[in-house]
Amino acid sequence: MSGPPCAWCSRPGYHTLLGAERICTGCRRRAHYHPGQCPGCGRRRPLAFRVAARRVCAGCAGVDSPFACTQCGREDHPYGARRCARCSLRERLAELLRDPTTGQVHVRLRPVFDELVGSQRPQTAVWWLRKTPGVGPALLAQMASGEIAIAHESFADLPQDRAHDWLRDLLAATGVLEPWEPRIERMTPWLNTVLAPLPGQHAETVRRFAHWHVIRKMRQATTHGHVSQAMANDARRRIRDAIEFLALLDHHGVAIADATQDHLDRYLAAHPGRGRGVASFVAWLRSSRTNTTLTVAWVDPGPPQVTVSDAQRWAGVEHLLHDDSLRSYTRLGGLFTLLFAQPLSRIVAMRTDQVTTGAAVHVRFGAVPIQMHPDLGRLGVLGHRAGLRHQESRRVREGRPHAHRADRRGFGHGRAQRSHPAGYHHLSLGQGNAIYV
Ligand SMILES: [Zn+2]
Ligand SMILES: [Zn+2]
Ligand SMILES: [Zn+2]
User: Fold this and answer.
1) Domain residues for 104?
2) Are residues 198 and 278 in the same domain?
3) Which of 153, 180, 207 is the last residue of a domain?
4) Separation of 48 CA from ligand 2 center, angstroms?
5) Do 348 and 265 fall within a single domain?
6) Cα(15) to centroid of ligand 1, in Å?
7) Are residues 424 and 315 in the same domain?
8) Which 8-state DSSP code applies to residue 213?
9) How far apart are the first and last CA of the chain?
10) Cα of 39 to ligand 2 centre, how many Å?
11) Which ligand is nearest to the CA of 54?
12) DSSP character at residue 421
């Protein structure tokens, strides 16, 4: 049906009557999605009514708002023609999370419901529900219906991809599930792979050692902070060492319960530098009463992975101190490593309050602040100032999956922010870190 042209854009077509004007669907939609400050009441609302040559809100025009949601009466978060995004989301989620036994939102998933419905941008959650292939929503529905358990274990046999990780983050952030740590979760599939070729008895022993000793320690570490990549690598090395020791026993046709100190000493002689790794297995054999006769008397720290002569070290220090063409965070990170033997993981986690500036610059690695050489102090001040600009994020954990509250800018982005490249690049990502420049 055609009528007079749109009062705002002159387009012909079927138009809505707003006050004394007829406007087209496009203009109506624009007014709804782009509210402005009303010159009448000062509130931010859709301005679509001409009163005394000014465009004002429905209230100031003295009419019922045609933009209001028919369910909740609000004009914000436009979504469909009649209802707002939040009301639409509430209905869809209530259906998705319905527990068939009660007819209500599943009691354990209620925090997810509240979080999504209450999010600042309900449109984003509506989009997430509609997006194909809809992995997250489908899993939530299965959890609500009781088809799969509301537990981390339910994710064990599912792909470890962004969609699944995101849902787990959501469940953890809302307190439905315990916090989880991707580096720990990846241990189980890795373990299954390395144990697959082993004889049944050995696989079982290593599996128990891995779960009850190695992975358990990693879980304990999460209560003090995040699990670093170095920690995850170390855990895998301990498990590999256990596997190799068992392979030696197998070679001699000896069961683990019957292994003697002589076998262990032979293993240590054949694998210099593995003492620390196998010591943890031996300790577990003892505590689990699998074999209480073995001991690792002295733990051989093994050769360092990278060796640097004194001359090379001082040349490196000279270079880092005086080469202004290098980025200051690279220089500081390198100097902390060369001069104070600080591992990269610790440097990356440094906070601005570990650096105090004044007549001299002090940096605190442990309990006692260390006064920096003036050249190093100058670099430190640079880093500190840059860090102070980002005080609001006191500490950025490398690779840590943050609660999705940090994700409110958009669903599904949280995972992408976690996969940082290795090495010094971390330093530049650490906003709020003392050496962020
Ligand atoms: Zn128009
Ligand atoms: Zn107004
Ligand atoms: Zn509504």
Assistant:
1) 85-180
2) yes
3) 180
4) 10
5) no
6) 8
7) yes
8) I
9) 62
10) 6
11) 2
12) P
167 and 217 part of one domain: no
Domain count, the chain: 4
H or E element, residue 117: helix 110-117
- In one-letter notation, the amino acid at residue 9 is C
In the reported structure, the alpha carbon of residue 82 is separated from the centroid of ligand 2 by a whole-number distance in angstroms of 21
Q: How far is CA 411 from CA 128, 166, 323, 330, in A?
A: 7, 9, 43, 33
Q: Which ligand is nearest to the CA of 28?
A: 1
| 283 and 200 co-located in one domain | yes
Say how many Å lie between the CA of residue 64 and the centre of ligand 3: 15
List pLDDT tens digits, range 319-334. Answer: 788 777 777 777 887 8
The verdict on residue 74 lying in a domain is: no
Tell me the average pLDDT across 185-209. Answer: 90
Q: Is residue 377 a contact partner of residue 361, using CB atoms and an 8 Å limit? A: yes
Question: Do 324 and 277 share a structural domain?
Answer: no
Query: Is the domain of 333 the same as that of 241?
Result: no
The answer to whether residues 317 and 370 belong to one domain is: yes
Q: Which ligand is nearest to the CA of 84?
A: 3
Nearest ligand atom owner, CA of 55: 2
Determine the Cα–Cα distance for residues 22 and 28; give it in Å rounded to an integer: 10
At 201, phi and psi to the nearest 5? -65, -45
What's the pLDDT tens digit per position in 37-77? Answer: 999 999 999 999 998 889 999 999 999 999 999 999 999 99
For tokens 């440097």, the residue is: 347
* Inside any domain, residue 77: no
- Ligand of minimum distance to the alpha carbon of 10: 1
Residues with CB under 5 A from ligand 3 (ion): 69, 71-72, 84, 87
Q: Which amino acid is at 70?
A: T
Which run of H or E residues covers position 319?
A: helix 310-322
